[in-house]
Structure prediction request, 208 residues.
Amino acid sequence: MKKGRLISFEGPDGAGKSTQIKRLEAFLEARGFPYICSREPGGTPIGEKLRELILDKRYSEMSRRTEALLYAAARAQHVDEVIRPALEEGKIVICDRFTDSSIAYQGYGRTLGEDVIRALNAFATKGLQPDLTVLLLLDPEEGMRRAEKREALDRLESEAAAFRAKVNRGYLRIAEEEPDRVIYIDAGKDIEDIAAQIRKRMEVFLEE
Ligand code: TYD
Prediction:
């Protein structure tokens, strides 16, 4: 039986997830609240091996479906070995990336589709979903302005920019679909303001 709470942090690379995770850890520590912190892909010995395999640039031939399945495999192990046991002990589990990363990156970025990835996630997690997801995202208009300001992009850069735009669209879609679970935070805001917003939301869980 699940007694703890699962909090995931999501957003594109470089949105400030790790800074905010550290802030939240300090807050929980100060309150003497039992928690663990983990990450995906990874979080277990098998997961870390899979992480090496997925992120290894030598395997450029890896197909999109293979990639999606490997993320899901790492997640299944993570849920069984680390996340569920900790939740059963009543701990707060903070996870740096979880199911929404697959929806945004594989579903939207790699265009495998949201439904396929939701089904894959459901299989990998046996239906476990985050109780709360902190989504750190630059306001899309601000992102566009920044991109336009930059010099003309070369082909690889513009491919990377197009991929990032698709991932962002995926995240925005998730935030729209599940406003109760997902707090969408403008990653361009002040670090302290963001940390305060997350703490406020955490207070609700701690009171329960
Ligand atoms: P990582 O170095 O952890 O990036 P970050 O510090 O931005 O979290 O690399 C993880 C990469 O894996 C990141 O680019 C997102 C990607 N990813 C997916 O594409 N799908 C997933 O399901 C997960 C968990 C991560």
Observations:
- Residues 64-88 form the longest helix (25 residues).
- The chain has a mean pLDDT of 93.
- Strands lie at 5-10, 35-39, 92-96, 132-137, 182-186.
